[in-house]
Structure formats: structure tokens, C-alpha cells
Amino acid sequence: MKAYFLNDIKAAGSSAVATKKKPEVKETDSLCPYCGVGCALTFVVDQEKNRILYTRGRDGAPNAERLCVKGRYGFDYAMHEQRLTTPLIRKAGSYPKGPLSALVKESTGKHKPGGRVDYNEILPHFREAGWDEALDLAASRLKQIRDTHGGGALAGFGSAKGSNEEAYLFQKLVRAAFGTNNVDHCTRLCHASSVAALLEGIGSGAVTNVVRDVANADVAILTGCNPTENHPVAATFIKDAAVNGTKLIVINPRRPQIADFAEMYLRPKPGSDVALYNGMMNVMIAEDLIDREFIANRVDGFDALKKVVADYTPERVAKLTGLPAEDIIRAARLFGSAKAAMIFWGMGISQHTFGTDNARCLIALAMITGNVGRPGTGLHPLRGQNNVQGASDSGLIPMMYPDYQSVKDPKIQAKFEKYWGVKLSPEVGLTVTEIIGAALKGSVKGMYMMGENPFLSDPDINKVRKALSALEFLVVQDIFLTETAEFADVIFPASSFMEKTGTYTNTDRRVQIGRPALKMPGAARQDWELICEIGNRMGYPMKYTSVEEVFDEFAACTNEYKTLSYQNLGPYGKWYPCPDPKTSQGEKIVFGDTFPSGKAKLVPAQVTEPDELPTEEYPFVLNTGRVLEHWHTGSMTRRSQALDTIEPEAFVEVHPLDAAKLGLQEGDWLQVKSRRGEITLKARVHDRATPGSVFIPMHFREAAANVLTNPAIDPIGKIPTFKFCAVRLSKHL
Amino acid sequence: MATTARKLIKLTIDGKPAQVPEGTSIWDAARNIGIDIPVLCHSPRMRPVGVCRMCVVDIGLRVMAASCVRLCEEGMNVDASSAKVEKHRKMLTSLLLSDYPENSARESSTGNDQLLALARKFAIEHISLPDGAAGHARGSDMSSPVIAVDHQACILCDKCIRGCDELQHNNVITRTGKGYAARIAFDLNNPMGESTCVACGECMAVCPTGALTNKPVTSMRAAVGKQRNQKRGEA
After folding, report:
1. Which CATH code fits B88-214?
2. For A637-647, how does the pLDDT look when each residue is reduced to its tens digit (9 = 90+)?
């Protein structure tokens, strides 16, 4: 009986090594590579086989040992057989450039291309090369374009998946060696409008308090976000708070699961956010539920705001939003009479042509009620990527140097010219969406793409494909062959999160260190070294002996990071600002006394119509987003066995009433067509959204939602309107 | 954040003096002064429920008290590791092991089976009780792609239920059945893979035994990769 443990016990008793052969494991304290929550975890690794065996949550400030399915089970992509292991150069016969994989656009129905880029279709167009050849080719072609057409003909996309150090070096390379500010990353597709509104309103784009401060809030608004799926571990703390008495007001046209925990769930018409918040402010002002002292001391522009929202009576807003007037009044009273209230928001606010206006309203809502700077109060745009906060902090955006120092300010320009030892461009660079447009027109000719896959993540994929084909020279640095790599001249095999050291700044402004758990496959190299190699070979010396040295250079040119170092960040990191890292964890809550801009500036907004309203031909509103198990363009999660098994396919979520009208059953194939393209995918019938609207996740290349989306952008944040375009549905037989 | 000042209580644990705020459990008080009382159903991350009885201590009363739920009292004299207490724990471990399967999936995955750790601690070499695990009568559930459920290895400590409901707020895991047939269940007793489980793995992480364990993601990956390569005619 029970031989197993008896043997084991005997072995242990005789102090011999356990009889069962167990792999020699090494534990590495690191972070989760996925979302902005920034969970601390431990990778347990079989060193001999260079494989992660499992992960374990650590007691980090953002997660208290909790993890979600991605952090717990989504680590195996790094060990995938399709990892790039050698530099690749496009063969001479494979020009002119064009898409190499099967057309996504064509509705091939059940015989659609697979979920990932087909290596067999793409690899024959490339030949393996040595590092020197690949790096020299890339550097010389980029240099040639710069010298012939000027720095403005070059551009770079970095990634919010990379570390602060990588982001800092990448923007330095583009600014100092390319000679242009044309550097951007996926923040443009996520919170650019929120950041624009926050910078304008209070002078800082970061959150004012941490997620877990929700425990101290009486009321919390969660709008345009679905934390259960997109910030799963943050959601558990928000639910903790709700169970302990924090009243949640959940606002979202597509009912998020967290509405189960809410005091109120409001389902406004898609795109009617400005009206709703103006309506709530109208009620608060009318019923004197505002903080007059806070307004007098800390806020400018209240009178102008008051004038604008005066027109947004509950009755009028009821018509604009489709919500009952009494719900608007009740929500306003709930928020307005709370002693401490905070606001979380997500892409449902930011990804609109009026995304900046949406965020301005939320800022005003917090300001007129005095809900910033105290425990349980604050503005928290939930950040998407693990390092989207840090990438922006590091200057990976076209209008700012590190730490939001404007490229337009000659004094700051002079400071960085001295710091980096080279003349810099005084012109604001182009954003992601503008760079794609410029490539199409031919004014941007050469690009360096580090870890970005705009093919799947940018709106109107067919346009992106044309733009990428039009580039004279494209360097792609990634861990897999992405859809973007099809258009590359040179491909650099790079390092995965699990193979590198770096700092990452989470949604709470917590700077934490990720540590390497695995060895890189084949000839793959560290991303930061590759950036330096390009710089060096273009004649701009970038010489560092370690990642820490890069961090120190970055920190030294900022205010927020200057007190931080690898030494004092330690195993659990710190929140910035952190005036005294020796004694403190950093600031959980900021702006208790004043804002970086002095007083907060209220900017009233008027409701505007979405860029593309439904018509008879395109009667449905398309909303896009993410699902729990997948990440963005899927290049990681679709290579994770567990995640891809749980959620293997694309779908379009249709309301039961619409399904009945169309004669649809769950699982039927459906063609979804917009003015830009069409895709074919399976229907899921669900009543989370309102009739007349459908939802498609963005991750699946075989039915890419962004074939359909509208590239119209917010005029200030330059963010595309991913959350709203008009589509037609038809049954695919 | 202001913490309301609580009355301090003085007590002795294994002869060591301790001073804790009113409302502190004996288990926490012992931990504060470096005495680790063994427990299967509790962790500092959770609300204590006192179901496994492994953490019992002698406080001089007629029966021993579960230290995870029993609060400290002024002047209490706690015996947390006497022969009497250890004998009780050893007996309890033997009883739990008598129903335990031969192979603990935890030992072969994350390698931290807490029940087997206790068996080692008490050097239990022989269990003079009938083998309740014969035929693996309590069954298993392999329907989740990431978590293996072995009901035979479940000691009904409820940690998974608290992990699912109170830490992650997913409210998927519950109990079903009565008496010896009692076991954990998912939703309305569905297979785990068909339930509303979101695979966060909290239940697996908090489970002290081989009842809820990781399926091997890595080896699954390797096996699938090999198959694919073979299909493509590669090595």
C-alpha cells in the first residue's frame, strides 16, 4: 500500500536525496509580462532543459500573490519552437515587397488561414544571416535614407511590452541617431487621449492613486473598462472593496462581469459618454453636491464648465444616452455625496474620436467634487500593457522627451542636446497613425520596428499593409515572425520578457524589476544591445555595460525616477514619485496639495457624434476589445498552449434579439463587413451588449477586427476610434 | 490609514511571552514570535475557518483548540508543541493519509504537498488503517485544460473555496454531497472545464494537497510541438 510516499519518507528519514528523480529547479523572482497590473511572480525553471515549469504569485504590492490565467499559465510562448533564432535578410527575389501570407481579407469561410503567421509561407523569402551582416545592412540603409532625405524620412515604433531601459534607448536612437522625433508606440492606440486630457488638466499623465486604494473609497466609478477580463487581478481588489462596502457605479454599453458587484450598472448608448458625465455634473451642481472649497483653491475654469453642463439636464441626457433620467440623477447623487470617490476608466473612454473629451469630463467630475489627492479618491486610467506607463515616461512618444519634457521647448531641447551630445530636431514627431499615413504617402521611407505589430493592432489593416509595402526599408525586431515581419528587409531575433533584465512601470506608477529566468534561444540577442548596435553602426555611439547603467542615465534626466536605482528598487519595486527610497515605498496617492500644473484646468466638452454612424447599409455598431485569455495581436498568447486551448477562436458577439432577426444560431458563421473590409467568424449569442451592437476581440488574425475598424482619430490624442464603427452582418453559408 | 488602537493582550506560547492586539488568533500570535504551528486549511492570506484541526493547541481546557480561529486571551498559557499535541497531529495526519492516493500530483508538479510534508515530519511509515484510497473511489476531473482535480487527495479544507470566492471573487467552487460523499464542486456540480471557472489557478495555488494541481503546461507544449513537427515532416 501507498508505496510512493512511504519510500519517499524512508528516503527523507535516511537523509538521502529523494529517490524520485526531480529536475534541478531554479527560482527567479520576476514579473508577469502581460498587463498593466504588473503582478509580481516567481518563475520556477528547469535549468537543464531551459524551460519554465510553473509560476507562483509573489506578495507584490499590485497582486498580493494573486495571478490570473495569463500570468499563471501563459508563460510557455517564450519556449515556443517558432522563436526566431537567427537574423534574417529578405532575398533579392522577394522584391517588390508585399504581403507574403494568405490574404486575411478574403472570407475563406471554414477553410480560413490559421491563427498564426504561417512560417512556411514567409521563411522561404528570407535567408539566414550573421549578426554583422544584418546589423551593417540595417544601419547603412537607415543612415543612407537619413543622409539623403533627412531624419524626417525615418521613424521608429517601440513597444510598451519592452522595459523602461529599452524604451529609453529606442527613443534616444530615433532622436539622436535618426535625427527625428518620429517615435511612438502602442500607447497611441490605448490611452493617448486620456494622457492628453490629464496633461492638459493637471499636468501629469499618470494615475493619481493606486488600484488598491479603492478599498478606502465609498464610491467608485468604473467606466469603459472590463477589469475582470483585462486587468483581472486589479478586478479582484475592486471586488474586495465592493464586498466590503465600496459602492461601484459600473458604466459600459457592453455589460462587464464586474457589474455583478455594482450598486448601479448603467448601459448608455455607445459613444454617449460626454452627455452622461455632463448630465451627472449638471445634477451635482444643481443639488450642490460639489466641493466649493476644493474648486476655489485648486481648480480653474469652473464657471465655463458650469455654463456648458447647464444645458445637460437629466431629461435631455436621458434622450442622448438612452438611460432613464432617474438613473442619471441617482448616480450623480451617489458620486456627489461620497466622502471619498475614485474613477477608473479604460479603452471605452479613450478609443473614440472624442476620447479626449470623454476623459476631460471624468477629470472635471473628480475635480468639482474634490475627489483627488486623498485616500480613496483619484483618477485611474487603467493602463493596458505591462509597461505602457513606463514607455511613455521614458519618452517613447513623439512630442515629449523622457519625463514629459516637451520637444518644442528650446531650453529642454538644448538640455537634451547636451545630455546626448548631438543636435536634435525641434519638430514634434509623427504619431503611430500619422506615421502609417506618411509611409503610404512616401514621406516616411525607413522604419525600425521593435516589438510592435501594427499589422494587427492598428485600425484599417488593409491600409497598414499598403503602407508597410511602400516603405523603402523596414527593420523588424521581434521574438516571432509577426504579420509585420512579412514586410521587413531585415529581421532581428530578440529577447523575450523571460530572458531579460529591465524595469517596468505598472498602472499604479510602481517601478519593478523583471529578471531573466531563461537563456535566449539560438543567436537571439538582447533588445537593448541591438538598439545600441544600430546606433554605433550609424555613427552615434551608444555604449553601456549593463541595463542598470541605462536605467541610471534615464533616471538622471527625469524628476520622477531620479531617486530610484536598481539597488533601492529591490525585489518588490517602488511607486514613483519616491522622495526618500530608503524609508518609503513611494507615493500611493499624489497631488494632495497641488497639481504639477498648479491649479487643475477644467475643459468643458460638448457631445459630438461618432465619426461613422450606423446606416441602412451598415446598421450595426462594432465594438472591439480583448478577452481574458489573449493579449493584443496574439503573438504571445496564441503560442501559449493553455491560453489557446481555452480560447482558440475568433468570434463575434451578437445580441439574442439581433440573432433572432438574422436567423442566427450560436456557432453559425457570420460575415461582418464595414466600409474598409470584411471578415468571417463564428457567432456567439449573448446579451452582454445592447441590440444593434456587436463585439469582436482584436487578437485573431484569421478574423482581424481591425480589418473593419475606422482609422478616424481623436484630434488631440490622435487615438483611433476602435470602439465605434458601422458594420453589416450576413450569414455565411 | 488610521488604525484604531486596540487593547494589548499578554499570553505565553510554549513558554515564550507574547503581546498582541486584542482579536489576534493564537496561530498569528505564535507566528509573530517565530513559532510555526502546522496547519493545512489556513494561510495568512485567508479568513480562518478551523476545519482541518491540524493547528490545535492545548490551552488547558477539556479539548484542544484550533489556533487559527481561537483568539488570544489575557494570561493564556498555550502549549503548541507538547508530546500530547504532537501525538494528536500525528494521528490526524495518519487518518488523512489513510484516504490519500498513492501518488500526489502535487509532489510531481509544484512539489509542495503539505500533507506529505507532515507525514515526513512525523515519520509515519506505517498506517494501521484500512486504505480508503483503494480503487480511487472519490474520482478525479481532468476536464480543465490547466488544472487537474483529484478528489481522492482532497481533505475538504475549503481553501480552494475561499481562494475562489474571497480572494478572486469568482464564486465557482463550492461543496456538494454529504458525509463521506462530500466533495468540492464547480458551479452546479459541473466538470471544472465546463464550469464558469476562469482558470486563474488560485485554487491550485492555495490547495495544500494533490487535489488541485497544475497540469504540466510545458510538457504539453513540447508534446504538441513534436506532433506538429511530425505532421510537417520535420524532425
Report:
1. 3.30.70.20
2. 999 999 999 99
